[in-house]
């Protein structure tokens, strides 16, 4: 997965090297002599240049620092890529909002700790045997994903359409936690595992469907088209499925009261503020 941030130091490195290349000295005949970054004999370098040039030492230090930084970022990018390949189920790299709320088919911060995941489900009220079965099945799925990644890496098609198709096919057999345990337990699970389980409205775009329906800053979107929404993924999926512009009900909570508004299916025109709320105290 290509991270543009990784290429920034590389571009800077090229710029520094280019700067070195244009740090030139003209000889007596008008020719151009390129300043050397390294020399076996410092005295020889000074003699050929006429006098020491402190800029060379500074540029060498910059090149070395940028090279080390680039290597560190590449290592970090590879690690993050591996983590996101395990968690992501969409073709494109997930946005920060999606990463924060990718709970539709994955397991948040408990995913890599089966025992913690099982304990959280049980704490949310799921039957222990059911929680254990879900955890075991998801561990098997995670192993299959890792095996697929290893195979794609060895055969040279990682991060290609072929790999994404195979990953999507593998994930299509998965069943979300929400489908397994139902909305009530799923809501508790999200809260107990530290994930957003409420969608707050941070602001409303002027002229949007939300403004026309009377949705205000500070409201909480409870459901869309009569289906509960807990995070960005839920709302995004709901607004982009079905027939565009058909009118659907949206349940909004304002303070202690809830009310219904009707909006055309599509973008609501709100900026979201994912939050957590204890379902048992809400």
Structural commentary:
With about 280 residues, this protein is α+β, with helices and mostly antiparallel strands. It contains eleven helices and eight strands. It has helices at about 5-20, 40-50, 55-85, 95-100, 115-125, 130-155, 160-170, 175-180, 185-190, 210-215, 230-240, and strands spanning about 25, 30-35, 200-205, 220-225, 225-230, 245-255, 255-265, 270-275. Helix 5 (about 115-125) runs antiparallel to helix 6 (about 130-155) and helix 6 packs antiparallel against helix 7 (about 160-170). Mean pLDDT is about 75; it is low at about 1-5, about 20-50 and about 75-110.
Compact summary:
By secondary structure, the protein is an alpha+beta fold.
Supply the key terms.
alpha+beta; 51% helix; 8 strands; 11 helices; 282 residues; two-stranded antiparallel ribbon; disordered N terminus
Element layout with pairings:
Blueprint: H1 4-21, E1 24-26, E2 32-34, H2 42-49, H3 54-87, H4 96-100, H5 114-123, H6 128-155, H7 161-172, H8 177-181, H9 183-192, E3 198-204, H10 209-213, E4 220-224, E5 227-228, H11 232-239, E6 247-254, E7 257-264, E8 270-275
Antiparallel strand pairs: 1-2, 3-4, 3-8, 4-5, 4-6, 6-7
